[in-house]
Amino acid sequence: MARVVLSQADMTRALTRISHEILESNRGADDLVILGVPTRGVFLAQRIGAIIQRIEPDAPKALVGALDATMYRDDLSRNLTRTPRPTQIPAGGVDGKTVVLVDDVLYSGRTIRAALDALSDIGRPRIVRLAVLVDRGHRELPIRADFVGKNLPTSTDERINVRLAELDEVEEVSIETRSGEARSSADTRSADAAPSARPADASNTSDTAGGTR
Amino acid sequence: MRHLLSTRHLSRDAAIQILDIAEDMAEVSNREVKKLPTLRGKTVVNLFFEDSTRTRISFEAAAKRLSADVINFSAKGSSVSKGESLKDTAQTLAAMGADGVVIRHQSSGAPQLLAETGWIDAPIVNAGDGTHEHPTQALLDAFTMRRRLFGTTGGTSGTTGGTSGTNGGSRGRDLDGISVVIVGDILHSRVARSNLWLLETLGAHVTFVAPATLVPFGADTWPAAISYDLDQTLAEVKPDVVMMLRIQSERMNAAFFPNAREYAREWGLDDVRFQALAPDTIVMHPGPMNRGLEISAAAADSAQSTVLEQVTNGVSIRMAVLYLLLSGDREALL
Amino acid sequence: MTTTPARATYLISGATLPNGARADLLVQDARITAVGTNLDEGLGITTIDADGLVALPGLVDLHTHLREPGFEQSETVLTGSRAAAAGGFTSVFAMANTMPVSDTAGVVEQVQALGDAAGYATVRPIGAVTVGLAGERLSEIGAMAHSRAQVRVFSDDGKCVHDSLLMRRSLEYVRTFDGVVAQHAQDPRLTENAQMNEGALSSELGLKGWPAVAEESIIARDVLLAEHVGARLHVCHVSTAGSVEVIRWAKSRGITVTAEATPHHLLLTEDLIRSYDARYKVNPPLRRDEDVQALREGLADGTIDIIATDHAPHPKESKEAEWDAASFGMVGLESALSVAQTALIDTGLLSWADLARVLSQTPAEIGRLADHSHDFEVGAPANVTLVDPANSSTFDLGRLAGKSTNSPYLGRTLSGRVEYTFHHGYPTVRAAQVAPSDEIAAQAEAWKASN
After folding, report:
1. Which reaction(s) does the protein catalyse, per the Swiss-Prot or TrEMBL entry (chain A) (predicted)?
2. What pLDDT is stored for residue C348 in this prediction?
């Protein structure tokens, strides 16, 4: 059974707070670029971008983009072929900018590692920060988030489902205990470990814990 | 997808997936760092039994941009020309640890044989077999058409929004309702066959124009209109795309048509025919061109011509194909 | 298995004859010595329970490639006639495209002698029509006809006698010896580098087309030539509906033409070539379903006279190759009867009596095979095949008894199985097992001594 840990209102509050924190740490919106990591990170990045533009009307129009890290993953040969998602960098590029990477769930850290590699092939930002909606722990790499919606201690056999209105009808974050065989289509939309091969779904996991395999 | 052997059995979704991934690959090719680490540690063998420098270097560039190691195995000057069988060659490559084989062969069906016999357990990419198929050429042609018609950028599933091209972008699109006229030696053309099947899958209408001797027997049952009259076809179809095929000089010696002059007059895209085309008609040629025979210099060098774009796009398509075939867990596909 | 004593006597008990009657057959001294019901078993008689088995006159194949001399890596006279026995054949006509070509008395006598020594089946050599199958000069047809091999069938099979004048001359010439020219009907220019039946499928697969007209036009010419010179013509491996039509027309005019169809052209179609599996590469090529149906109907109405295997063994490496580079041909002796039952009996087109006619009686007549009988009368030579028609099984490598394994039927379910083959009164196949070659050679020696 899934247990809701963030409601829609909770999520909106968290994103608003993160937006303020980003502006605070960057001392405004100058030279700011928000890049979402597909799939759900992109929608979260768009929301953060919208909030920032509301707070700072002078913020650059081309603020938000997408950074796909599929081609940089370290687990490609362990899973069915993944379909990459488009990368879109705002006009003006990333050189010398403050880039905030946005993802829904931070888990092993491997996706962010891949995203950092992808980013370095595109340009050389001045600073790279990381914003996540949920940090569930269990890092496998020395990576931490600068802006966190909610820290959520979990065990590895639990899964975090992030559902967004853009894709999933409902809007909430829930936690459920995985039973071995219950891998429904809803599961593949969740952000957590991929212990075995799974379909190359367009809305695949945003983070993978290789260590649970 | 385990292998890419033909476009005949490629589904619409699979084709569009390849075209969309090629869009991502095209963006990589525009960057300063034109390389992805994706296939690091993998070995791609270019097994070419037939000379084709263009296709070989296109696959080579694609593999290298994905960080794969490339071994070029040319049949010329190797044991293959001394009678080594395809089976022995395949088993040798398997023993060397090839992770993927790109094969060009003069015999139709040779790639399918490699894929199905168990001589080698690696993804096989058909880079042209006999007069059968040349699937990556058809895919790059479709990709080129799609980009010309719908623009280069654009969002699927609303990922970013607001940055789409003027026509909404190419991603996710098929070629529904587009009319394509393919002119020339259909009989011996694997490019024509692969294009026909793929274009049909993507919803385009294909017309073949050729001298009757160069129309394949039984092609009347194919999903293409057949015409022997280029002027009439161009006037009636008003095509979105005109694709000219290369005429091999040996065809003239085999009595398929009287001589080059008559061919150029009846079936060549000369200046007069080119001028009569609508200004946004796309002019394509898989190369290498016989200027003055099947296509005039003016047509080949015009803004409507996509000849060089096709070369560029070939690398993106082949990157997409190599990515799809080589990156995943093959055991999981079984 | 113990060695059967030479000159043993066998009682085939309760076999079903082609006409449907049930009978016991007593086999003694290479002859059928009694036919009846409830024949006594007697002392020293080996009884074979043939209940449920159909007895056919020993099958005769007018078109076999035994490959010896010259291509012994594919087949020898011994291994090929062993394959024949496994398939229920007691006589085979060996095609002339050996190396050297069977175009002289010496070669045909050698082939015949090898067959006699092996003892699995009667081997009758076919002589080449032209020297070296080159299609330029007539070979020593007379010498072959008058040799110990007494050749009556002449063929350049594998190649077409395409020169009209040469074809006319050969028809006229063999008439002198009551011979027949067996033509491989294939216009060479229309089939240059051809790979499969010409049609939408060949165009799709990118394999060079082999038009039906390349066969039909040669048959049409040849029947007219045969009529003109009043000679006997036999058409090898008819493969198209159009060819059946031409032959039907020729027969209606009274032209003395006979024709054969192969088992594979009666069962398999070109669609199999989608796999590019060279086991399906054969000359003439597999055709469309319409052609298969026309051939079956042709056999049923007598337009096509016989089934002949065109057994064409090839070594593995000749078939494990890209389609263009692979050899043409399929082995067919071991599977012929099962294919015929599957395609013709199971479909209700032919009766067992019809099958006996097209696989034994008529091919023997066309080839002027001496001492052949199909009526199971007392005194007839004891060449008998017992088949279990109820056996339906997957055709596998264990069914092949020749040297090569290029069978298109491996893995396919076929009806019927040869249980016993008697050649000259001794069993070459017992309980579906081919008898060992030394035993058969000894039996052949004994038979020869008694004649």
Report:
1. UMP + diphosphate = 5-phospho-alpha-D-ribose 1-diphosphate + uracil
2. 97
CATH of domain A3-212: 3.40.50.2020
Q: Does B81 touch chain C (CB under 8 A)?
A: no
DSSP assignments along B201-267, one per residue:
HTT-EEEEE--GGGSPTTGGGSSSEEES-HHHHHHHH--SEEEEPPPPHHHHHTTSSS-HHHHHHHH
**pLDDT of A113 strictly over 70:** yes
CB contact under 8 A, B217 and C198: yes
pLDDT of residue C118: 97
What was the pLDDT predicted at B61? 97
Chains with ≥3 CB–CB distances under 8 Å to B: A, C
Please say if the pLDDT value at position A181 is more than 50.
no
The pLDDT of residue C373: 86
pTM for this predicted structure: 0.90
Give Cα separations from B36 to B21, B63, B188, C182 (angstroms): 13, 10, 37, 66
Confidence at residue A77, expressed as pLDDT on a 0 to 100 scale: 84
Domain boundaries, chain A: 3-212
Known binding-site residues of C for substrate equal: 65-67, 97, 283, 314, 328-329
Read off φ and ψ for residue B103, nearest 5 degrees: -120, 135
Low-confidence ranges of chain C (pLDDT < 70): 1-6
The pLDDT of B185-214, averaged and rounded, is: 97
pLDDT at B168 (0 to 100): 61
Equal fold, B12-134+312-333 vs B137-162+170-307? yes
**Second CATH level (architecture) for the domain B137-162+170-307:** 3-Layer(aba) Sandwich (3.40)
> Residues B286-306: what's their mean pLDDT?
95
The 3-class secondary structure across C131-180, one letter per residue, is HHHCCCCECCHHHHHHCCCCCCEECCCCCCCCCHHHHHHHHHHHHCCCCE
- The residue extents of the domains of chain B are 12-134+312-333, 137-162+170-307
- Where residue A178 falls among pLDDT bands split at 50, 70, 90? confident
**What own/partner pairs with CB < 8 Å and gap ≥ 24 does C143-149 have?**
C143/C104, C143/C105, C144/C102, C144/C103, C144/C104, C144/C105, C144/C108, C145/C174, C145/C177, C145/C179, C146/C105, C146/C177, C147/C105, C147/C108, C147/C109, C148/C109, C148/C112, C149/C105, C149/C108, C149/C109, C149/C111, C149/C112, C149/C124, C149/C125
pLDDT at A81 (0 to 100) = 84
Predicted-complex ipTM score:
0.92
pLDDT, position A162: 94
**Which residues from chain B sit within 8 angstroms of residue C202, using beta carbons?**
217-218
Q: Kindly report the CATH class assigned to B12-134+312-333.
A: alpha beta
C142-145: long-range contacts at Cβ-Cβ below 8 A with a sequence spacing of 24 or more?
A: C142/C173, C142/C176, C142/C177, C143/C104, C143/C105, C144/C102, C144/C103, C144/C104, C144/C105, C144/C108, C145/C174, C145/C177, C145/C179
Q: Which pLDDT belongs to residue A177? A: 86
Domains of chain C and any CATH numbers: 9-55+378-389+412-450 (2.30.40.10), 58-366 (3.20.20.140)
The arithmetic mean of pLDDT across residues A187-196, rounded, is: 39
Q: What is the DSSP string of B34-78?
A: ----TTTT-EEEEEESS--HHHHHHHHHHHHHTT-EEEEEESTTS
Rounded Cα–Cα distance for residues B143 and B15 (Å) = 10
**Which residue ranges of C are tagged as binding site for Zn(2+)?**
63, 65, 157, 184, 237, 310
Q: Between residues 77 and 96 of chain A, which touch chain B (CB distance below 8 Å)?
A: 77-88
Separation between Cα atoms, residue B55 and residue B58, nearest integer Å: 5
- Per-residue pLDDT reduced to its tens digit, B21-43: 999 999 998 888 899 999 999 99
Mean pLDDT for A59-65 is 90
B105 Cβ under 8 Å from any chain C Cβ: yes
